[in-house]
Design goal:
7 helices
């Protein structure tokens, strides 16, 4: 059972080591470490694109991981910077300018984790009914495209949706929180609430109930927010989620 923050952070460190092809010790040392991207067992099951660039820190060391063709650029432009400089707006803008030639954009996210030690259960009002669902019962929700943050638009066999909690108000589906198996021991929670039902605690209720399900399965739940999404960060913190790492990565430009 993942009961405390210290053991949870050790799990995160091992997963990030595999994700970013680095040594665990590099997260605990001051400095910037540049590594070539490669597939390693135990990593989260995200595809490794041909042109890859990502930056991660748990608070001390910064690991920059990129494809072979980007190593020279990364060493010349980022290798001499400090942790704080790496995440300066000017540096992020430089990275964005570099990757845009390959039709990519930069995403910067704060990642939270929750353990039994920190978890704060939220019980919604009587007007909100919660329904946990798992496995094949999730399939019907992909048809209406109303919950892109929670469920996307189709299931991904590499990172399948394993569990969800549906919130109902007045007999209507109002929101969904769902968890994807990004790796064997850590699942990511996404959440959506339909506009007509916002500001009623539905997102908090569904994420709370889903977090309980994951913790009961000895799975470490994690939650991602964009830096500017204050409401999402407040939701995570209110349920006992704690910041664990910062991740910058490239993705294909959305057309």
């Amino acid at each position: 059972m993942i009961s405390d923050q210290k053991s949870a952070l050790e799990i995160v460190k091992k997963i990030l080591m595999a994700d970013f092809a680095c040594e665990e010790s590099e997260f605990d040392e001051e400095g910037v470490f540049i590594r070539q991207a490669r597939e390693i067992e135990g990593a989260r099951r995200f595809p490794l694109p041909e042109k890859f660039l990502a930056v991660v820190t748990m608070g001390k060391g910064v690991v920059i991981c990129c494809s072979a063709g980007r190593l020279r650029w990364a060493k010349a432009n980022l290798g001499q910077l400090t942790r704080d400089n790496i995440f300066d707006i000017s540096t992020i803008a430089r990275m964005q300018n570099y990757v845009s030639r390959n039709h990519q954009e930069i995403r910067l996210e704060l990642k939270f984790i929750c353990t039994r030690e920190t978890f704060k259960t939220y019980i919604p009002g009587k007007d909100i009914k919660l329904y946990p669902i798992e496995g094949e019962h999730l399939q019907g929700f992909y048809k209406n495209n109303l919950f892109p943050n929670a469920l996307g638009y189709a299931d991904n066999p590499e990172r399948p949706h394993m569990a969800a909690v549906v919130a109902s108000c007045d007999g209507e589906t109002a929101g969904v929180a769902a968890a994807t198996a990004d790796c064997d021991v850590m699942w990511q929670i996404g959440v959506d609430t339909l506009p007509a039902y916002r500001q009623r605690g539905i997102a908090k209720a569904t994420v709370s109930a889903l977090t309980e399900i994951l913790l009961s399965k000895a799975i470490l739940p994690y939650y991602s927010t964009r830096f500017f999404n204050i409401a999402s960060r407040r939701l995570a913190i209110s349920l006992g989620y704690r910041p664990a790492w910062v991740e910058l990565y490239t993705r294909e430009t959305q057309s």
